[in-house]
Amino acid sequence: MLRSLSRSFILPYLCFLCPVVMLSTEINAQQNYLNSTGNVGIGIAPTSYTLDVNGTLLTTGLSSLASSFRVYSGAADGVATYSDIRTNLGTGNMVLSPPGNAIYFNYDHGTGGVIFCNGNGAIVATVSSTGAATFNSSVGIGTSNTYTYSLAVNGSAIFTQVVVKPFSAWPDYVFQPAYQLPSLYSVSQYIQANHHLPEMPSADSVEKNGLDLGSAQAKLLKKIEELTLYMIDADRHAREQDTIIAGQQALLVQMKELLKTQQHEI
């Protein structure tokens, strides 16, 4: 009886008096370790990390919607920040979710893909399982200022093929009978006054605003078509002149023959 009482009272008393001695002893139970520094190893001896796991880690969240793993970090203002890593039940999606934002992995019906959401939960970009990327906002490469354009590139770009589909009408209307072709005289007057072709952007405009490829190609084609009409008209006039000259030459030959005849008669 006395020995039993001694164990029940003396051992807790010694633990209370000597906590350093008790905590300095490493605990090893079925490959789980707790060393004297407080670091924990599961399936492996503790390292310099607070927790080191050798094997698969299974976590189940408190919510019925998902299992989660939350990582906290300190902040300069003393307010802790965190990120959740979880899988949604039913879909198997892996979600990396800092407060107000989210990145969804394997969203494409379990075949892969990534969704990026902003602080309001709206989707800003998706990458499908085939690698096709869709952005719901402007994209800047080498720059954060897209100047309201959908894509802004600060640097060089190379393409094997570029297809531009302008919204304006393609200038085949130049060949319609109702089109009023400007006279070359009016074009000459415009060039003398403005130092560039009508409807084409000036050098100052291109330097300031850049060049709209779709619009520029349409305008260049319009000028080529107008130039073609000028050449067709010039060719028509040249052939008419050739016909007139040929007729005049034939008349001149006839007049020469007539003169010869008259001279013989005299």
What does the model show?
The protein has 266 residues and is α+β, with helices and mostly antiparallel strands. 35% of the residues lie in helices and 20% in strands. Strands 5-6-7-8-9-10-11 form a 7-stranded antiparallel beta sheet, with no helix packed on it. 3% of the residues are buried. Mean pLDDT is 76; it is low at 1-25.
Task: Set out the fold topology.
Blueprint (H helix, E strand, L loop, with lengths): L1 H16 L1 H5 L3 E3 L2 E3 L5 E3 L8 E3 L12 E8 L7 E8 L5 E4 L4 E4 L8 E4 L5 E5 L5 E3 L3 E3 L9 E3 L30 H11 L8 H7 L3 H53 L1
Parallel strand pairs: 3-4, 12-13
Antiparallel strand pairs: 1-2, 2-3, 5-6, 6-7, 7-8, 8-9, 9-10, 10-11
